[in-house]
Design brief:
The protein has about 290 residues and is an alpha+beta fold. It has seven helices and nine strands; from the N terminus they run H-E-E-E-E-E-E-E-E-E-H-H-H-H-H-H. The protein is elongated and about 80 Å long. The protein starts with a helix and ends with a helix.
Amino acid sequence: MIHPFVSRMLAFALLTISLVRPALAQLSLPEPSPPTTIKQKIGFTDLTIAYSRPAVKGRTIFGGLVPFGKIWRTGASDATILTVTDPVTLAGKPLPAGSYSLFTIPNRHDWTIILNKHVGGHGLDGYDEKDDVVRFSAKADSSARFYESFTIEVQDLVRNQGNIYLNWANTSVHFPVISNADERVTAEIMDRINVKKEEKPGLYYQAALYYFDQERDTKQALAWAAKAVELKPAFNYLHLQAKLLARTGDYKGAIAAAQKSAQAAQQEKFTDYVTLNNRLIAEWEKKL
């Protein structure tokens, strides 16, 4: 016969085992919509987008799983969060530096893109239209390929801007993001040249080159290039001056500057610049 104390201990042990078994039976499984974060520098601005990636799994996505005309979390699980370290513009709309939840309203031909200042929600929890910071429309296109997983990309990076793409199944939506780099660079140029009066040939060259690349005020860029050449007639300064003269239509002046650039480059054994200048001279001579 079992002693009552032993009997109680056996019963306790069996109860403990029965309670532990379900916990032991739990498996660690991959998340069905794995989270990810993308980071991209645009100009001086760090752009970060944190989101989760649901899969198609044979389902009809837009107009099915994601109804047309209704607000969507633009991903899965927690709300998608977009962060920028400087003010930017999205599709021409100003967006201050900070973190925002990204929501969308998909339709067959266009989507409404929404940036909202509430960032602590799961899905649509806590969303209130009064907290919207930016709203705009973006065209919905057919994607170049099929996207099994919802995918956000930052592509087409040129100068101080790029495009944000929202891709899933056979649908792709994109909109431009432009950084404030141009304002920052221009402010520095004006401060150092016009206020601090720095007489540095490299500064005038960089300012002229920036304006040339940005296709800004050719007359001003040419004045800065001329000042750089006056302070230091380096072959690369002369080469930029030649290209700016050609942009104004002064091909005779451009050829003369390019010839000086080629001669200076030859002396310093920069044969690539010699070749480039000679090619431009031949091209401009045809326009005289």
